[in-house]
Amino acid sequence: MQGGDLTEEMFGKFRALIYKVAGIKIPETKKVMVSNRLRRRLRATGIVGFPEYYAFLTSTGTAVEMPLFLNEMTTNETYFYRDIHHFDWLNETFFPQIAEEGRLRKRPKTLRIWSAAASTGEELYSIALRFLPLRPLFSGWQVTLLGTDLSVAALDAARAGSYDERAVRLVSQAERARYFEFDSKTQRWTVKDELRSLTTWKSHNLLRPVGEEPFDCVFIKNVLIYFDAQSKQAVTRHLIGSLAKGGYLVVGPTEGIYNMLEPLEKRRSWLYQRAAV
Description:
There is one protein chain. The protein is an alpha/beta fold and 277 residues long. The chain folds into two domains: 8-74, Chemotaxis receptor methyltransferase CheR, N-terminal domain (Chemotaxis Receptor Methyltransferase Cher, domain 1, Orthogonal Bundle), CATH 1.10.155; 84-273, Vaccinia Virus protein VP39 (Rossmann fold, 3-Layer(aba) Sandwich), CATH 3.40.50. The chain has helices at 8-22, 31-45, 50-57, 62-74, 84-103, 122-131, 152-160, 173-179, 193-196, 229-241; strands at 110-116, 142-149, 162-163, 180-183, 188-191, 199-203, 215-220, 243-251, 265-268, 271-273. The strands form two sheets. The chain has a seven-stranded mixed sheet, with helices on both faces. The termini are far apart.
């Protein structure tokens, strides 16, 4: 077996490195997962063992290899319309409310939404799917739908926008027919340009400010489960700082940051809002 056994000492070093760079606390019970994912990088780089790979990763290979390493360690499974009630809220409440405020000149005609830790894109494309039928309400508006992730490979997959049946299982047949192309040979669904053109993607580490204009809505879901309290507090501070006045934060059920959102007003169990003034 390439690399031999992953010793407890080396497992600890890799866990510490992941935490230092990405703020993610890999549980002690995930040794087999880490070992298997490390072996993929050993095969890709041709490096013989875990100690040698660690030495390479933390010295000459840092710039090129570190993003690939983090991609292996942090990739999570996701799918379209995960937590469907979040997306129902978008088209039933959020989009009409924002459009009406613009019509009454209570806000500038700009709409900015951020999918933080967007992984391979399913969440941001789900947001775009709910926006498209209401697009006429936003004629003449400047609309930004941004997806960010630490993993460059995940972002490449998001830009490609190609998904298997499992990922799109909650997407309606009407939406598939209008906004996706189906390849019968590969059995994959690829987003059409009308959907893809709404989205923008960039690499971002949640431990740092996103460096963008404030957002009207931010999604943070299914990513902070492996972050410890200190890292979560740093991420939460940046998320709150990214919200426009009156902006909303949509939080996943596993994030564990509800007690860190005190500056925001709770609207639902998963929905928080920054004060408008």
